[in-house]
Amino acid sequence: MANWVFSIVDSLGAAGVGLLIFLENLIPPVPSEVILPLAGFRARTGALNIWLTWPAATAGSVAGAVVLYGLGAWLGYHRLHALAGKRWFFLTSQKDLDRGEEIFDKHGGKIVLLGRCVPVIRSVVSIPAGIARMPLPRFLMLTAIGSGVWNALFIGLGWVLGENWDRVQGWLGPVTYVVIGLVVVGVIWLAVRKLRSRSARSAADGS
Known about the structure:
82% of the residues lie in helices and 0% in strands. It is mainly alpha-helical. The protein has one domain. α1 (2-12) packs across α2 (14-26) and α3 (32-44) crosses α9. The longest helix is centred in the last third of the chain and has 40 residues, at 167-206. The chain starts with a helix and ends with a helix.
């Protein structure tokens, strides 16, 4: 992965960093903790212009987020709510979905802004924003701010660490695994809640 990232960055420069970060939003195996510190290191050596690299990375983040926002908007709350009412749809119930909508209505701005600074969540947070039809200008502003902070931090780490830029992936790896584990546990919890609710309704109907 690192060699592939090297080749793209060295071939395309700052535009390559933006392209890779765009893909990182859509394809989880492309890790920003490799791309951004490497970009910082390459900028330190003079191979990249730091003042072009950071805006390119942030533009890539926003572009990728817009694609996922569009996916969420296409799915839409009403369509997802109807799916949640199907017996075969086990991910969440309509009640849990309604509860999630209330939370996002109240705290959606904070969720999008802070979510852009959390591994894994930084990509998927765009989907509920699209489902909730958060005003696009607000979504773009919050995404740009959160992504800009994330990108500046990791490009800066790569600059400071120099040839040891790859240490960042080792530091962030455990955090990513914890976040993935929490997401999986959350999905399982929602599925179990729906199955229990369905069983309770079936028992009540049978009696």
